[in-house]
Amino acid sequence: MTVPGRRSSTFTRLLRHGFTDPSAAERLLDSVELMHVRDDPVLLDALGATADPDLALLGLVRLLEAQPGPTARRELLDTLIAAKPLRDRLLGVLGASAALADHLARHPRDWEALVTYEPRDLHPGVEEFERGLAEAGDPVSLRVAYRRCLLSIAARDVCGTTDLAETAAELADLATATLRAALAIARAAAPEDTALCRLAVIAMGKCGGHELNYVSDVDVIFVGEAVDGADEGKALRSATKLASHMMRICSETTVEGSIWPVDANLRPEGRNGPLVRTLSSHLAYYQRWAKTWEFQALLKARPVAGDLELGEEYVAALEPLVWKAAERENFVADVQKMRRRVVENIPAAEIDRELKLGPGGLRDVEFAVQLLQLVHGRADAALRSGTTLDALQALAAGGYVGRADAVQLDEAYRFLRTMEHRIQLYRLRRTHLVPEDEADQRRIGRSLGLRVDPVAELNREWRRHAAVVRRLHEKLFYRPLLDAVAQLAPGEARLSPEAARERLVALGYGDPAAALRHLEALASGVTRKAAIQRTLLPVLLGWFADSADPDAGLLNFRKVSDALGKTPWYLRLLRDEGAAAENLARVLSAGRLAPDLLMRAPEAVALLGDGDGGGLEPRERAQLEQEILAAVGRAENAQQAVTAARGVRRRELFRTAAADIVGSYGTETQPAAADQGALVDLVGGAVSDLTAATLAGTLRAVVRDGWGDTLPTRFAVIGMGRFGGHELGYGSDADVIFVHEPWEGVPEQEASEAANRVVSEMRRLLQIPSADPPLLIDADLRPEGKSGPLVRTLKSYEAYYRRWSLVWESQALLRAEPVAGDEELGRSFIELIDPLRYPAEGLGDDAVREIRRLKARMESERLPRGADPKLHTKLGPGGLSDVEWTVQLLQLQHGWSEPGLRTTRTRQALAAAAAAGLISAEDASILDEAWVLATRVRNAVMLVRGRAGDTFPSGGRELAAVGRYLGYGDGHVGDMLDAYRRTARRARAVVEALFYGA
Fold it and tell me: How far is the C-alpha of 998 from the C-alpha of 993, rounded, in Å?
C-alpha cells in the first residue's frame, strides 16, 4: 500500500530507469497485457536501456494489443523475457522509432523477423534482402516487406551490432533489392515493353556510394538500349514507361505509405532531359555539355538493377571522363562555388540546426573528399571509391590527407551521420535538421550512449564535431602540400612532387613549380617560425586560391615574410589576430597596388589586425594633418619633411586600399559590403583627405624652409575636380588652383614671386623619385589654363572672372573647395566664385547650348583611339562624364534657389536634385548606380594593375581580378561586362532626356 503523498517504489524505479513520465508508465505496466511481467526486473532494465523508455513501453503495449489472441501475446512475452537478443532488438527499435512501432502495430507478427540470430543475419547483403522481398508482387506488399527488412537493419543499428558504415551499406543493399523488386513488378505489368528494350538502373548519390540514410531520395540514372532487331525509338519509349512505373512503385503513397522518392534529376539536362537515354547519348552529353558537378556526381555511379551488363558498360564508358574532370578550367572554383551556393540557400532560421548542409556539416566532408578524389584519382586508382569513409581512408593511406586530419574527420563524419540516422529513424521522415524539442534531443542523445545529461552532452558533442569539420575541410587541400616540401617526419606517406603539382594546378595556381619553391622556403625546417608558417599556410593557400591570382598572393606573402621574418610580432599577429591573416591574404592576391604599397614598408601589416593600434577604418583629416605637420616639424629641411609626409601618405593609401579590398571581397565572418556606394565614398573621402593633409604638410615645409614662420603673402590651395568633390581615386592627380593675397606693406611683386616659388617647390618635392608614390599637382583648371599664371591674387581672379570667364569655367568651379593654406583666404575665394557657379536665375539658353556643345565635342574628340566607347568608364555613354555633366547642369540652373545643390560632391548633388523634384527618384537612382559602378571599375583597375585606367583590362587574369573585386566569381567576366553595358545604357537614356533634352 502506498502512503498518500509519497511516491510508490515503482514510480521511483521508473525515474531511475530513465522514464520521463513515470505515472503514464505505471498505468501501462498495470495494463492487462503486461500484468504477468510488470515486476520482472529483466523487462524494466531492458526498457531503461533504450533511447526512450516511455516510447518503448508504449510501443510494446500497442504491439501486445495488436496480437491476434492470448496465445500469440503469451508467445511474444515469453520470448521477450527469455531471449536477450530479441529483447534488446525489439525494445531498442521501439524506443528509437515511433514509425516502426506503428508498422509493428499494423503487422503484429513482423516481430518474429527479429528472433533469428544466425551469422548470416548479422550482416545481410543484397541476396538476403531480395529473399526478404521475394513474396512482394504489388506496391503495397512491397512496402510491407521493405519495412520488415528495415526493422532488422534498425535493430542491429540501435543495438550496436553494426556500426555506421555497415548500417549505411545495408540500407543501400536494401534499396538495391527494392529497386530490383519494383522493376520486376513494372516488367510483369508490361511484358511487351520488356521485350523491346534493355534497361539499366544506375544508382547515384548515397545509394550509389553504398552509404544510404534511413530516409533519403534514391538518386538514379537510366540507360536504355534496343534489343537486337528492335526500333531504337520504340525501345526507348518502352524503357521510359518501365522506368517511370518503377519510380511510381517506390515513390507513390499507398495505405502502407511510401518507400522513398526515386529521383532521376541527376541525369543529363536534369528534369528537362529525357528520362532514359542510350549509352551513346549519355557519352555524347558528358563529352560536350556536362558541368563540373555532373562529373563529381558520377563518382558514386553504380549499376544496381535491370540489365547489369549494360550498367557496367555505362560506368566503364564514363569513368575516363570522370578522372579528367580536374583538368577542366576553374574546376576547384566550380566545386567550391557550388558548396557555397548550397550554404547560401539554407534558410537563415535553419542554418544553425542544419546537420547536412550547414557549415561544418556532412556535406563539407563529402565535398572535400570528392574534390581530392577527382584531383588525385587520375593517377591513383586506389582513390576511386564511391563511399566517403573508404575514400577518406585511401586518401590518408596515400598521403593525400594528413593521417591525424583523416582520423578526426572520420570520427566527426561517423558521429554526424549517426545523429542524422537517429533523427530520421524516429518518424522515418527525410530531414537533416536537429530538432529543437528537448524530448527529441534527449532521445537522440541517449541513443548515442550519452546518458548523464543527454541534451547538454549531445549539443556539446555535435558542436565539437562540427567545429572539427569546419576547421579541417579547407585545410585538407593544403596541409599535405606543406608536408610534401617540409619533409619533417621520415617514413610518413606524403604527396609526391607530381601529385603536389597536380593539386596546385587544380586549385588555380599557374606556376606550381614556383609555388612549391615558395612553400619550401617558408615552411621547411624545425624553427618556431617555420612551425607557425606550417600552421598558417594551409588556410592562407585557400584564401589565395579564392582570388584571381593565387600565384601573386603566395609570392607576395613570401616577400612580406622575408622582410618581416625576424620581427617578433609579425607571425604572432597573423596567428593570434582573428582578421589579420585573412585580410593579408585578400590584400596580397587582389592586384599590384596594395602589395606594392606594403612592400615599401612591410610593417604596415600591423594595420590589418584587430588590435587597438591597427584597424582599416580611414583616419579623419584632422588626425592626418596633425601627424604630418608633426613629422614636418621634426624634419631638418623641406625635402626630408616632404619625404616623411609622403611616407604617411603611402601608409594611409595602403590602409584605404586594404579596407576597400576586404570590403569588396568579404571575409569568412563578414560578407562583402552590400552598399557599393559606401565603398566608393570611403575611398573618395579617404584619398581626398589624405591628399589635402599631404599638401598642407608640404606647404608648411616649403614655407618654413624658405621664409621661416611667415610667407610674404597669404596663400591657399583650392581643390578642384575630383579632389574638390572628395572623389579622388587611387591614381588621381590633385587638380588645384592657387590663390594668394600679399600681407599689408609687402610689394605685390615680392608676394607673387614668393607664391610662385612655393608652388614650384611643392610640385618638385612631391614628384621626387622615391619608394613612395608621387603626388602630381595639376593646375590646368586655372584661368587661361596652361597659358595663365600658376598663382593669382584674389583681385586678379575677380577681374578675370568679371571680364573673361566662360561657362565651362563656371562649371569647373562647382567643384572648388579650399583644401590647404590660409583658411580665411580660402573662404574669401569661395565667396568670390559662388555667384559664378550658382548664377542668379540660373543659366540662359545660350549658356545651356554652349555646355551641350562642349560635351558633344568632348565625346567625339577625347575618346582614345581603339577604345570601346561602351566600356569606357569616363567618356563612354552612361559613364562618369555623362552623369557629372548632367548633375552639374542642374546645379548651374537651380543652385541659386536650391541650397542642397550647393555641394562639390556628385552623389550629394544628385540626391538633392531628386529631393527638390528636379529629377525623378528612379532617374536619380539610375544615374547614381552608373556613377558608382564606373568609379568602382576605375578603382579596381588601379588596384589590379597598379596604374590608372578608364576601361576594363584586356588581359584575362587582370579582367578576372576586376570581376572578383566587383563581386563576380570565376567564369563570370562576361556577366560583369554585360552588367556594365546594361547599367551604362540605362544611364545614357536618362542623360539624353535630362542633359540633351531629347
Answer: 5
